[in-house]
Design goal:
This protein is mainly alpha-helical. It has one domain: Death Domain, Fas, CATH 1.10.533. It contains seven helices and no strands.
């Protein structure tokens, strides 16, 4: 069950990363502050070709986020006005592990 939950979480993060504009990424970096290494934050904020996965991995490694801890992301996305992503994260926390395709199918 934990592995399925982790896979669902990772797929959700990939989907969220795909939905962020460059301006969203820059704002997210600002609100994350020192939650991740500065070099990663700078890369995410200035290189649109860079994958958001490097940021997600750093946040997971530092235990800032995880399958059962999305509060930091919810707070940041509220701050940058991405309420659609806040809703996705809240929906994720309410639903048991299920096929990750449901995150890609729902468009707000």
């Amino acid at each position: 069950m934990a592995a399925a939950n982790n896979n669902t979480f990772r797929l959700l993060l990939i989907d969220i990363g795909d939905r962020l504009s460059m301006q969203n990424r820059q704002s997210l970096v600002f609100f994350l502050g020192d939650a991740a290494p500065r070099q990663i934050l700078d890369t995410i904020a200035h290189d649109s070709r860079s994958s958001m996965n490097i940021l997600w991995d750093a946040l997971i490694e530092r235990q800032q986020i995880g399958p059962n801890n999305v509060n930091l992301l919810i707070s940041c996305f509220q701050s940058i006005g991405r309420i659609d992503l806040v809703k996705r994260l809240k929906e994720y926390t309410r639903t048991p592990a299920e096929p990750a395709a449901s995150f890609r199918e729902a468009d707000d």
